[in-house]
Amino acid sequence: MKKFIFPTAYLLTLILIISACSNNKKQTTKTIDNNQAKQSTLIDQEGTFGVDTLKTNVEWLGEKPTGTHYGDIKIKKGFVSTDKEGNILKGKFVLDMNTINCTDLEGKKKKSIEGHLKDPDFFDTSKYPTASFVIEKVEKNTIKGILTIKGISHPIKFDYTKVSPLTYNAEIIVDRTLFDIKYKSKSIFPDLGDHFINDDFKITLNPISFK
């Protein structure tokens, strides 16, 4: 009986070693497959892609001598077309003007400024519920296109930066008086003294993402 003890123990040990090696190989293969899957989602792609509204953040900033107000607004829909390097070729975006949100105030003051921004002094959202931007030309990292607010269209241009595939940052300066938003504009009402609101307001895409 004793002569079978050693071979049996050796056989069990060999089986355990082979099993462990097999499991390690499977785990390594699984890790490689997972890494390849992750990398495939992070490469630049050519095609047309819709706005990923859950990952897109559009911020606004208005300034005056006595301070600033800021907040965000939602993109209703949009798309972008890109080349193989992920550079933007064309696109169109629609903003839902009734989603104007002021984030620097709370309570009654917040509701008051949001209501004012939506009335005829500013964006008149009951009459013009959306604003839009159409990309007409892209030169390197500069986008040129047509912005439409309150039914009035004007050309604008701004630079953009690719953060990662299908994700971009941009800062856009808009002269509100070009779109018939004249409330407390010193360029139109020069006698306002320091009680004016800057003509320019800023839109920041921080970021805008596509899928």
What does this molecule look like?
With 211 residues, the protein is α+β, with helices and mostly antiparallel strands. The chain folds into two domains: 2-40; 47-209, Lipid/polyisoprenoid-binding, YceI-like (Lipocalin, Beta Barrel). Helices cover 23% and strands 44% of the residues. It is built from two helices and nine strands. The protein has helices spanning 5-40, 107-118, and strands at residues 47-50, 58-64, 67-82, 88-102, 130-139, 142-149, 152-164, 167-175, 200-209. It has an eight-stranded antiparallel β-barrel with strand order 2-3-4-5-6-7-8-9. It is globular, with a radius of gyration of 28 Å.
Produce the secondary structure layout.
Layout: H1 5-40, E1 47-50, E2 58-64, E3 67-82, E4 88-102, H2 107-118, E5 130-139, E6 142-149, E7 152-164, E8 167-175, E9 200-209
Antiparallel strand pairs: 1-3, 2-3, 2-9, 3-4, 4-5, 5-6, 6-7, 7-8, 8-9
What is the structural class?
alpha+beta
Spatial strand sequence of the major β-sheet: 2-3-4-5-6-7-8-9
N- to C-terminal separation?
Answer: 70 Å
Question: Secondary-structure element sequence?
Answer: HEEEEHEEEEE
Percentage beta strand: 35-45%
Total beta strands = 9
Discrete helix count? 2
Shape: globular
Q: Share of helix among residues?
A: 10-25%
pLDDT under 50 segments (min length 5)?
1-6, 31-40
What is the average per-residue confidence, as pLDDT, rounded to a whole number? 87
The CATH architecture name of the largest domain reads Beta Barrel
Please compute the radius of gyration using only Cα atoms: 28 Å
Biggest β-sheet: count, sense, barrel?
8 strands, antiparallel, barrel
CATH topology of the largest domain: Lipocalin
Name of the top-level CATH class of the largest domain: Mainly Beta
- Relevant CATH superfamily of the largest domain: Lipid/polyisoprenoid-binding, YceI-like
User: What is the total number of structural domains?
Assistant: 2
